Amino acid sequence: MHTAQTEKTPSFIAQQQLGLDGYPLGRTTDILLGGGLCAYIPESEEDSCRTDERDLLNETMGLWNVVFTPDELSAADALPLLGLFATEDLAYAIDRPDSQPGLAAMVNKALELLTAATADSDKGFFLFFENEVTDKAQHANDIVGTVSAGLELSETAELVKEWVTALEERGDETLFLLTADHETGGLGLGTNAVSPIVEYTYGINPFVIANASHSSTYTTLLLYAATAEGNLTLDQVHQVVADNMALQYFSDDEATLIIEAANTGDVYSILAALNAAVNPRVQVGWTTMGHTAVDVDIYCSNNPYCSAFYGSHENAELLELMLGFYDDDDIDVGSVTEALVGFNATASVDGSAESEVSARAIQSERRRGFLESRARGAVRR
Ligand SMILES: [Zn+2]
């Protein structure tokens, strides 16, 4: 469950576990929901992000239930279930179009179907979900997008806790873990803003976030798309910023900086100029557009085993701690890892592996250019 199944952790889970082309473990996944439709369609089709003619969607049809809209998701009542709701990434919660379900809706459906499917089984299930847009928004130093994603994650966590309680009531021991793989952006709160309109010298001003109806990433893409019609005007910038972010006392000087940035044709320059107006008003600052080594929290719920997660841990320790929750005979990670490592080693020399390698190349390319593809899309719209 992810913004784009083509990215990071779920990508590898998806590639291995759709079980379509002789992966050694066969199909071991029952439900996959998120964006990333572009990776399922052949290169020659519009919006594809593949570098070959493989049609995963076609291969999946008939083997999986496949849904594309929130209504279809809500009506889905059988596993295995594949949901593809966006060409690439899902939108931040605050920018979400009606064509995409929220994280909570996806998690709720997954828990509903998995709970039903395991009602008469002693096997249980493992559900992994990720709110990748927290990372995306922080790469963009986008405080509105970040807070909107954080609120959505919090809402989803509440929902999961209710499900866990229900599972316990039917006698299933359950562990709910929530953490981050890393911090992004080096977000600092209570920066000593230089903007004269900010009255506080300490603290943050959440009302700026509350007033916004869209993220600065979304607003940037609107401004960028407008440059296709010619140079931006002061009125245009004022209008777009007022309509989407409702910044108080947004000045001609600030609008001029955005116009100058837009004239360079670089979407990141527009984003930086807009963020330079937003972040000081909120009194937040960022140290980077990349990942950081800042410690992240681990939350654990509904089980005495949670005490294993107290204190500070290296990220690699998490797997060991999670495995400690199971009885030794229940799970054999070693042999599964061996099968996958062996498979990947041979995969890198044969034909099908080439597409794996290029899929990974696309992935890292796309991670570097987290805004470019969306900028192109914004111009097309
Ligand atoms: Zn990232």
Name some characteristics of this structure.
single chain; 381 residues; mainly alpha; Diphtheria Toxin Repressor, domain 2; 2 domains; three-stranded parallel β-sheet; two-stranded antiparallel ribbon; 9 strands; 46% helix; 7% strand; globular; binds zinc ion; alkaline phosphatase activity
Description of the structure:
The protein is mainly alpha-helical and 381 residues long. The protein has two domains: 8-182 and 301-364, no CATH class; 189-285, Diphtheria Toxin Repressor, domain 2. 46% of the residues lie in helices and 7% in strands. Strands 1-3-2 form a three-stranded parallel β-sheet. Helix 8 (216-226) runs antiparallel to helix 9 (234-244) and helix 8 packs across helix 15. The chain is globular. Residues 1-11 and 345-368 have low confidence and may be disordered. The structure holds zinc ion. The site of zinc ion has 4 residues, from helix 5. This is alkaline phosphatase. One of its GO terms (cellular component) is fungal-type vacuole membrane. Its cofactor is Mg(2+); Zn(2+). It comes from Schizophyllum amplum. Keywords: Magnesium, Metal-binding, Phosphoprotein, Zinc.
Helix count, per DSSP?
Answer: 15
Strand order in the largest sheet:
1-3-2
Mean pLDDT across every amino acid position: 84
- Secondary-structure-based class equals mainly alpha
Query: What characteristic shape results from the CA principal axes?
Result: globular
Say how many strands there are. Answer: 9
